[in-house]
Amino acid sequence: MTSIGRSVGLGLVVLAAMQVSTSAASTQPKAKPARHAPAQKAQPAKTVPAPQTLSDAIDRLGSAFDGTVGIAVRSIDDGWETGWKDRDLYPQQSVSKLWVSLTALDAVDRGKVSLDDKVTLTTKDLTLFHQPIAAEVLKDGSYTTTLGDLMLRAITTSDNTANDSLMRAVGGPAAVRATIARKHLGAIRFANGERAMQSKIAGVTWSQDYAVNGKFFEVRDALPAKVRSAAFNRYIADPYDGAAPAAIVGALARLKRGELLSPASTARLLDIMSKTHTGPNRLRGGLVPGWTLSHKTGTGQELGGVQAGYNDIGILTAPDGKSYAVAVMIKKTSTPLPVRMKLMNNVVAAVIAQHDSGSGGSTATRRR
């Protein structure tokens, strides 16, 4: 065969092979580029029923309380959860300081800040209500400390100025809300810091000179009763910092399991929460020897004998290491403080009794 003939024959073979390949390919479904592939839906988590005795106990405690209360309990190890009106939104008040610290530690994990970073506070940084750090600022007109110290003060002593300063250092309210959204924490709101939120609850437009010498209280007390009452009731009806107890115990469980922060940051935050000084007779009052608690309290303003927000949320850990996330959030009540504290004590006591009984969760359904 001539070279031309060989070339023609080879070309016919190649062409035939291409036709066969094309024909076979045309019978197969075409794969879409990865970037256009539809996102896979997350499979719903299997629900582990809570122990019936604990659910019944939470029902009794919630229904017997004279006030609007939400209770949630979640087993961090076994995954079951139970609660009383735990999907409604309740005022967090200083419970929301937890999300500021979470945002700060997340920024540490991403290399954005260090807890050793210095920050100088002046009278322009002061807030209102509980702010022990104000004494340090007013002594010399300014006070320099670290982000780590601000976090410690915000969680353990619920210092409003320390918390707002930490918040601003890591990006402000928008950064905290972004962290809550990015980590999918659920029904948890964050307002615009203590000054903005507390003055709005009182019906006052904030001015920085209100931060010292009791000026805020003078201005608030001078308001007409109708103005104060309207502002107060608006907040109770739709709290700017509202959160569902169910969402909070879910977030606490994920924090404890190390799903929200690095191991070092997780350990640091839980250790700080274990040193909380506020609310010694709330959840902590229900502990028995061998059990520990890492927690954060929240206490709202009062008007006419009614308090908007009286809370404690935290992680209970048994002597054997098993843990439970607990949230007791009172939206509105005029019951005496000892009664509120006893409710929180009893919730903890119910969790401990259930744990000690060794009973698994197999029959209960969620209470609403």
What attributes does this structure have?
single chain; 368 residues; alpha+beta; five-stranded antiparallel beta sheet; two-stranded antiparallel sheet; disordered N terminus
Question: Can you describe what's shown?
Answer:
- This protein is an alpha+beta fold.
- Residues 1-45 and 360-368 have low confidence and may be disordered.
- The protein is built from 13 helices and 11 strands.
- Helices cover 44% and strands 15% of the residues.
- β1 and β2 (81-84) form a beta hairpin.
Percent in helix: 40-55%
How confident overall, as mean pLDDT?
A: 88
Radius of gyration: 28 Å
Strand content: 15-25%
Order of strands, widest sheet: 2-1-11-10-7
Break the fold down into its secondary structure elements and pairings:
Blueprint (H helix, E strand, L loop, with lengths): L2 H24 L25 H13 L3 E8 L5 E4 L5 E2 L5 H13 L8 E5 L11 H7 L1 E5 H10 L3 H10 L2 H11 L11 H9 L12 H7 L3 H13 L4 E2 L1 H12 L6 H12 L17 E8 L2 E2 L2 E2 L2 E8 L5 E10 L4 H21 L11
Antiparallel strand pairs: 1-2, 1-11, 3-6, 4-5, 7-10, 8-9, 10-11
Helix pairs in contact: 2-13, 3-6, 3-7, 5-6, 6-7
Task: Please give a quick description of this structure.
The protein has 368 residues and is an alpha+beta fold. The protein is built from 13 helices and eleven strands.
